[in-house]
Design goal:
The complex is a heterodimer. Chain A is α+β, with helices and mostly antiparallel strands. Chain A folds into 4 domains: 158 residues, Aldehyde oxidase/xanthine dehydrogenase, molybdopterin binding domain (Aldehyde Oxidoreductase, domain 4, 2-Layer Sandwich), CATH 3.30.365; 159 residues, Alpha-Beta Complex (Aldehyde Oxidoreductase, domain 3); 322 residues, 2-Layer Sandwich (Aldehyde Oxidoreductase, domain 4), CATH 3.30.365.10; 27 residues, no CATH class. Helices cover 24% and strands 25% of the residues of chain A. In chain A, the strands form 8 sheets. In chain A, strands 4-8-2-15-12-13-14 form a 7-stranded mixed sheet, with helices on both faces. Chain A has a 6-stranded mixed sheet with strand order 10-18-17-16-11-32. Helix content of chain B is 28%, strand content 25%. In chain B, strand 2 and strand 3 form a beta hairpin. In chain B, helix 1 runs antiparallel to helix 2. The chains are: A alpha+beta, B alpha+beta. Chains A and B meet through helix 8 of A and helix 1, strand 2 and strand 3 of B.
């Protein structure tokens, strides 16, 4: 079956009724319909779902990052009263591996473990505690192997192969102009590193699988892309697409972490085996093992410029740690290459980007994928080069800024508004926050806050700038599309528009935008956005900043098709030319004259249209990384102002200012929310958020130890939103979700460098780096009576 | 993220060893896997003793024939093969496509 086709059978579970809203048109700030229920606790998240007779699923995971499995013994677990099923790889009815692009990941491991937390067996029981006890009774005979935990090591020829085709999963090479075969007056080099960030969505992985009694299954699931889940489920369950139906349940955030399967196949296997509904909900710790993360990266850069500050060449080599399985690593690798030099004009570039299998946790999609990593590197280099040239960092960036008609390293000409210089100049022109006065300072406004670590002594202020960009939508020749079905009808309460898509609302506000578009196009007050499911064609993924563009565009086109049919009806009945007609307040009008009301026109004859929206064609890169791979670019700039306690390495971000071109703000309030949210996530990456992995093992799988920014860490965000219409996009809009996340981290680190004078080549920046203390304690034997041997004497750790 | 971008053709094969062959069972399996590994195609384990190859149609078919030959030459008696074509590979355009459009007034082509 084609992914654009629908699954016809009605769902087995009745979820919350679709709400009917009365939205304003596009361009108006609209409150989201799920806002109040989420705040009051009435919103039904995936983990809240329940049906009578539901069993609880649980997953046995490997404690080892690399091991052989010699045997799996489940009989003791099966014997526990209340246990309904214990399943292993032998019970996978179809393909035993899955993966969005490369099916390399076992549904349940059979003989080899490649990462800590890899699923081996699943259990269904009548109580979560019973399921947990059953997991403890499953006996696995492991042969523990040394983990291959370093991406550079994994690239070596003599490294053990984690997959048959080797450890290098993807390599993208771009040669632009003469590559690096040119000379420059001023050359700077740098090595940069980024840690493993977690999407840290607050609603953990969860879903409810319900057998339909005829061999099929309905899955109610928090996901980002229903149809790609369905495709993989069909293959591993050995069922036809009609027998596997998915409905989106309440999603508590995603950020890329729900793009791969987690418990989907497991829940369906258990439901089909037991013929009972099965619910699986991960706890926070399991969630850290249950989804992919942002790729850690090591990046080596060399920039050359003329004495008067024009870029001559960029050489970049990026190595991304993909972890144990492919996920979306090939695309992340390609993004890291295509956006490696930033939104700048540079006549020559030589770029190599690699992604490598290791025994670390699998990495994949996360907001800004690939571009986040390289933006930190290229912006650090731009500051370093500006310093070497004795130029103002913003002036230097503006001098090299990409403009309309500039050429990407891929050879692609940049179309439409390209306001890189304008964004930088706008953030620079924003008023600076007030400097600290001479009097006593409020502790809450100082690094360390109420911990009372300083009263202002040793505190230095720094300011930094960065600009970033990324493509919107799927690239490199992928046939990207979204489907929308729109029905115009009349009920007892008047005209109603129903919008049906498979697009995942993950918290970004797409439901509101769909309703606004329908209201704008059809002039009807009452709009109902139906639950997303596979009964309508694919909308693609809620990722890559694409959903308002793609599904919003599909809804617009479907409304236009409905309107066209309505006007044809008017033409037939009233002889009015469709060209003179418009829709206002539930009526068809011609100029100021009402022609007919929708109540009269429809009269039981609903109009329904289903359309598919595609963006412009894109092309794969060739062997030299050349090709028109992208359909739209989105840009943002940030300025960070920080106060730093240079002795303790503590930071308070005083203010973040940003300018972003959004093309057209369909819901300005939601746009502001996206920009603030992305900026907060960028702050987290710059200063706090890192999954600590040692020898393939996660050390901080909890929100106690994985540090997220809170409202106390988040400063006010000044923003300047530009609306420079993209002539090729619906309403001129530009994807908005990712750019704020891309330019925030380098701006904050630039501000830290300004305050401290230190290089700070790695994010998240740790207090030790800021204070100039080595990140690792000196290795020496414990000393009698010491007790602090592991930490070492702080004086031994001072950087020279 | 990326996109759903499956290979044009997937082949799963399983080499069934012969106890009576001159070469030990492990060598019979490794002979076939070596060909898969060296093909440059994406090769992964896809189940117990089962290997998957993915890529373009002609490359995959050519490689799987060489896998079969190598396995049989090493003494294996049976090679089970399952060939699966992706119904919708979701690609358009050729690598390196549309770079020569120089007229700024020319709109990008739509599909």
């Amino acid at each position: 079956m084609s992914r654009s086709e629908a699954t016809p059978i009605a769902p087995t579970r009745v979820g919350p009724e679709p709400t009917i809203s009365r939205p304003g048109g596009i361009g108006q700030s609209e409150r989201r319909p799920d806002g109040v229920p989420k705040v009051t606790g009435e919103f039904e998240y995936a983990s809240d779902m329940w049906l009578d007779g539901t069993l609880f699923g649980a997953t046995l995971r490997s404690p080892h990052p690399h091991a052989r499995i010699w045997s799996i013994e489940i009989s003791e677990a099966e014997a526990i009263p209340g246990v309904y099923a214990v399943l292993t790889h032998e019970d996978v009815p179809g393909r035993k591996v899955y993966g969005m692009e490369i099916p390399d990941q076992p549904v349940l491991a059979w003989d080899r473990i490649r990462y800590q937390g890899e699923p081996i067996a699943i259990v269904a029981a009548d109580h979560p505690e019973t399921a947990r006890r059953a997991l403890e009774k499953i006996a696995i005979d492991y042969e523990v192997l040394d983990p291959l935990a370093d991406a550079e090591e994994a690239m070596r020829e003599n490294a053990p192969k984690l997959h048959l085709s080797g450890n290098v999963l993807n390599h993208v090479h771009i040669k632009h102009g003469d590559g690096d075969a040119v000379e420059a007056d001023v050359v700077v080099r740098g090595e940069y590193e980024i840690g493993m960030q977690d999407q840290a969505f607050l609603g953990p992985e969860s879903g409810l699988a319900v057998p339909d009694g005829e061999g099929g299954v309905d899955l109610y699931i928090a996901t980002q892309w229903l149809h790609v889940d369905q495709d993989q489920l069909v293959e591993s369950l050995g069922l036809s697409p009609e027998m596997v139906r998915l409905t989106l349940s309440g999603v508590g955030g995603a950020f890329g972490g729900r793009e791969d399967l987690s418990m989907q196949i497991h829940a369906c296997m258990l439901a089909l085996h037991t013929e009972r509904p099965v619910k699986i909900v991960y706890d926070r710790e399991e969630s850290f093992y249950g989804h992919v993360h942002r790729h850690p990266a090591k990046m080596r850069y060399e920039h050359g410029a003329t004495r008067d500050g024009k870029l001559v060449y960029v050489k970049a080599r990026t190595v991304l740690d993909g972890g144990a399985y492919a996920s979306s690593s090939p695309a992340v690798c390609s993004n890291a290459a295509r956006f490696a030099i930033g939104p700048y004009e540079c006549p020559n570039a030589l770029i190599d980007s690699y992604v490598v299998y290791t025994n670390n946790p699998p990495c994949g999609a996360m907001r800004g994928f690939g571009a986040v990593q390289t933006c930190f590197a290229h912006e650090s280099q731009m500051d370093k080069l500006a310093g070497a040239l004795g130029m103002d960092p913003v002036e230097f960036r503006v001098k090299n800024a990409m403009t309309t008609g500039s050429t990407m390293p891929t050879g692609q000409r940049v179309e439409g508004p390209t306001p890189v210089a304008e964004l930088l100049e706008r953030v620079k022109a924003m008023p600076m926050p007030e400097a600290a006065g001479d009097g006593p300072r409020d502790l809450r406004e100082l690094p360390g806050g109420v911990s009372n670590t300083t009263h202002g002594e040793g505190v230095t202020r720094g300011v930094g700038y960065a600009v970033g960009f990324k493509n919107v939508g799927f690239a490199e020749g992928f046939d990207d599309y979204a489907t929308a079905r729109v029905r115009l009808s009349v009920t007892d309460d008047g005209p109603l528009v129903e919008v049906h898509t498979a697009a995942a609302e993950v918290g970004q506000g797409l439901v509101t935008v769909q309703a606004q578009i329908a209201h704008t196009e059809l002039g009807v007050e009452r709009i109902s956005v139906l639950p997303a499911d596979t009964r309508v064609g694919s909308a693609g993924s809620t990722s890559a900043s694409r959903q308002t563009y793609m599904t919003g565009g599909a809804v617009k086109m479907a409304c236009e098709a409905v309107r066209e049919r309505l006007f044809e009806r008017v033409k037939e009945e009233f002889g009015e030319s469709p060209n003179s007609l418009s829709l206002e307040d539930g009526s068809v009008v011609s100029g100021d004259r009402m022609v007919a009301s929708l109540m009269d026109l429809l009269d039981g004859e609903d109009i329904e249209e289903t359309v598919v929206h595609r963006h412009v064609e894109t092309f794969p890169l060739d062997a030299n990384g050349q090709g028109d791979a992208d359909m739209q670019y989105a840009f943002s700039a940030h300025r960070a102002v920080v106060d730093v306690d240079t002795e303790l390495g503590l930071v308070r971000v005083v203010e973040l200012a940003t300018a972003q071109d959004v093309g057209k703000a369909l819901n300005p309030q939601a746009v502001e929310g996206q920009i603030e949210g992305g900026t907060a996530q960028g702050l987290g990456l710059a200063l706090l958020e890192e999954i600590q992995v040692r020898d393939g093992k996660i050390l901080n799988a909890s929100f106690t130890d994985y540090l997220l920014p809170t409202i106390l860490d988040m400063p006010p965000v000044k923003m300047d939103i530009l609306e420079l219409a993209d002539p090729n996009a619906p309403y001129g809009l530009r994807g908005i979700g990712e750019p704020p996340n891309i330019s925030t981290p380098p701006a904050i680190v630039a501000a830290l460098r300004d305050a401290t004078g230190r290089e700070l080549p790695r994010i998240p920046v740790r207090p030790e780096q800021i204070a100039g203390v080595a990140t690792q304690p000196p290795r020496r034997s414990p000393q009698a009576g010491g007790g602090y041997a592991d930490i070492g004497d702080i004086r031994d750790r001072s950087e020279t | 993220m990326p996109g759903y971008n499956r290979a044009e053709l997937n082949v799963e094969f399983k080499i069934v060893v012969s106890e009576r062959a001159g070469k030990p069972p492990q060598e019979q399996i490794e002979a076939g896997l070596r060909v898969a590994n060296e093909s440059g195609l994406a090769a992964h384990e896809s189940g117990p003793e089962t290997t998957a190859l993915a890529g373009g149609r002609s490359e995959v078919l050519e490689t799987v024939m060489r896998v079969i030959e190598a396995s049989l030459d090493a003494g294996a008696r049976i090679v089970e093969v399952k060939v699966e074509a992706q119904e919708e590979t979701g690609k358009f355009g050729e690598p390196g496509g549309r770079r020569n459009r120089t007229d700024p007034a020319e709109p990008p082509p739509t599909s």
